[in-house]
TrEMBL record:
Superkingdom, natural source: Bacteria
Chain ranges of the FAD-binding FR-type domain: 4-105
The keyword Transcription regulation is assigned to this record: no
Presence of keyword Iron-sulfur: yes
Database matches in SUPFAM superfamilies: Ferredoxin reductase-like, C-terminal NADP-linked domain, Riboflavin synthase domain-like
Protein name per its UniProtKB record: Oxidoreductase
CDD domains per UniProt: FNR_iron_sulfur_binding_3
MF-aspect GO terms: 2 iron, 2 sulfur cluster binding; oxidoreductase activity
Keywords: 2Fe-2S, Iron, Iron-sulfur, Metal-binding
Organism whose genome encodes this protein: Microbacterium hatanonis
Cofactor(s) needed by this chain: FAD
Entry-linked InterPro entries: Cbr1-like_FAD-bd_dom (IPR008333), FAD-bd_FR_type (IPR017927), Flavoprot_Pyr_Nucl_cyt_Rdtase (IPR001709), FNR_nucleotide-bd (IPR039261), MRET (IPR050415), OxRdtase_FAD/NAD-bd (IPR001433), Riboflavin_synthase-like_b-brl (IPR017938)
Amino acid sequence: MTVGGWLPATLAAIEPSTPSARVLRLDVPGWAGNLPGQHLDLRLTAEDGYQAVRSYSIASFGPGEQVELGVDEVPDGEVSPYLVLDARPGDAVEVKGPLGAYFVWRDDDPSPVQLIAGGSGIVPLIAMARARALSDSAAPFRLMYSVRRPDDAMYRDEIDALGDDVDVTWAYTREAPAGWARPAGRVSQDLLRDAAWSPAQSPAVFVCGPTGFVETVATALVALGHDPARVRTERFGG
């Protein structure tokens, strides 16, 4: 899939996801389709001509001219507050993509897959889970999703409905549900050892989230014996 120039896009539908996040569907005439895990650049242009560009992971995959994004508001950000708080169906933006060929899952890889997300890092990983569900692949999937509290989980209902396609582990860092067996806390080396695929199974590992989260998880995985070349990461923030 090749990348062209900027394409005009229209916000077709907007749905709440969490108190601070939205799912946006964009109609993008000329969109070439994308692989699960890829991202795009989105550009806003103000009335005075000022432009702001940000990169967003894509929750959808495959052919078609509608693209789905999951956007979490970044306090004091230039683009995400507009997309989460102010954007309405019919608003115009521009996109460029798809971008990235490294952080993608391909259904011809039979390896076990370990998805590890922090916060809105779930977006490209939900695309991979969706692709797995609709493919003929027999690759076993596991997902570990770290969020502060239960209501901070994007795509929660869809994740809960994954059923036998994906083995899901939730990690709550600030507040766990009442009666939850594991106390609230960050993803640790012990949790990765207990809930993720073992290094002996040579899984393809995809880790996405804030920079600190990704670095901590990737370091722990390598310490457990995972091949660094099999641990693919995508991060955002400072």
